[in-house]
Amino acid sequence: MSTLVSLRRRERPAPHDPEFDRDVQAGLGAQVKTLPAKYFYDQRGSELFEQICRLPEYYPTRTEWKILREQGPAIAGIIGPDVEVVEFGAGAAEKIRLLLNALPRPAGYLPIDISGAHLSAAVASLQRAYPDVTMRAVAGDFTKQLPLPAPLPQARARVGFFPGSTIGNFTPDEALGFLRNAAAMLRDGGGVGSGLLIGVDLVKDPAVLHAAYNDSAGVTAAFNLNLLERINRELDGDFNLDAFDHYAFYNPRQHRIEMHLVSSKAQTVTVAGRQYGFDAGESIHTENSCKYTPIRFRQLAEKAGFRPAAMWTDPDSLFSLHWLTL
Ligand code: AVI
After folding, report:
1. Crossing angle between the packed helical segments 116-129 and 43-53, to the nearest 10 degrees
2. What is this model's ipTM?
3. pLDDT tens sequence across 187-236
4. I need a surface site. Which of 81, 113, 140, 211 has the fewest CB within 10 A?
5. What would the pLDDT profile of 136-165 be if each residue is shown by its tens digit?
6. Dihedral (Cα; 235, 237, 239, 241), 10-degree rounding
7. How many angstroms separate the alpha carbon of residue 326 from the centre of ligand 1?
8. Ligand 1: residues whose CB is within 6 Å?
9. Closest CA to 249 of 291, 209, 292, 290
10. Ligand 1 center to 193 CA (angstroms)
11. pTM, whole model, 2 decimals?
């Protein structure tokens, strides 16, 4: 279900979200334990992620930022005026400023994010900076088919924006599903010139990848462990955070960074009255961050019904920004 977020209301995360409870039960009860990465982003998790984006080792954010800034005029020339930008997983709604600055006469901004509280605060300050852009925030899970508000009469087309290589946090099948969903949502808005501008992290030297997910300040470790803290707080869990270690490595066969939380000893953990046994060294797989070659990503986009029309990258080929048309 999606909800239009009132910009004035301050939301608190639901103390006991039944979907979170079900997902945790399924993930910890499975033979190979997992937890969905989307639950990283409570208030604290979102703050930690913003810190990650500023870390010296974490190249994706600043590289994508640089591509957007330097290629802004080229991107704006292709996208054109009078579009409503739909941002999937807007978070702090920071990168959108670069796009709104670059685009000639943007008509609207429609950010979608799971964290309603974070989104409403971000959009309120953005609206002050762009008073002529109609902003309508939608709180919801953009990985599902969401009913969006009707297209703006003054907008010629809807343009999706999915920066940050968040697509890498989906399995290739989920990524295909997301792209198909996004294509349907953007097509629904009608208009000529609809498309998707999407940031995709590239396959590269594993040492560079390793450093990005094992930063020396320990912020990524804190981000990973915060998931257990959230379970303790919201689902009455008793995880001992000192008895789990952050573990992240590059899996070259699957072209992905895997993040895990590894139990340092044999232990039993209780969550919402249910008990889960851990062997020493047993892991909870908390996140994948898939990396693509430009060709592999274009093939995926084509399978989802998009036409890859342009791609920009940095001189070191760390990151890519794709313009896909419908
Ligand atoms: C949000 N996402 C693209 C980040 C990534 O790089 O996969 C999440 C993250 N996890 C650890 N560090 C950053």
Report:
1. 50
2. 0.99
3. 887 668 999 999 999 999 999 999 999 999 999 999 999 999 999 999 99
4. 81
5. 999 888 888 788 899 999 999 999 999 999
6. 50
7. 28
8. 52, 60, 164-166, 168-169, 213, 220, 287, 289
9. 209
10. 30
11. 0.92
